[in-house]
Amino acid sequence: MSLEQRVTELEVRLAFQDDMLASLSTELATQQRIIERLQQQVVQLARRQEDMQVHVGEPIIDVPPPHY
């Protein structure tokens, strides 16, 4: 294999790796946004659950229906 062929092969590999690195970086940024959104949703769900637990202990007022 000549020196020119080796350099060409290395350039091709470098171009492929640059493209792959850019793709991975884009995908990582997308995944990070998804993770942040999911974390916000978990926090919101935890708050809703806490709010619901507060109301579970309250007594239910037994009001007769209006037709009585």
Q: Total helix count?
A: 1
Order of helices and strands: H
What number of structural domains do the residues give? 1
- Structural shape: rod-shaped
Query: Number of DSSP strands?
Result: 0
How much helix, percentage-wise, in residues?
over 70%
Produce a short descriptive summary.
79% of the residues lie in helices and 0% in strands.
What does this 3D model show about the protein?
Keywords: Coiled coil. Belongs to the SlyX family. This is Protein SlyX homolog. InterPro entries: SlyX. Residues 21-55 form a coiled coil. This protein has one helix and no strands. It is mainly α and 68 residues long. The protein has one domain (1-54). The chain is rod-shaped, with a radius of gyration of 30 Å. The model has no long low-confidence stretch (mean pLDDT 90).
Tags for this entry?
68 residues; mainly alpha; 1 helix
Topology:
Blueprint lengths: L2 H54 L12
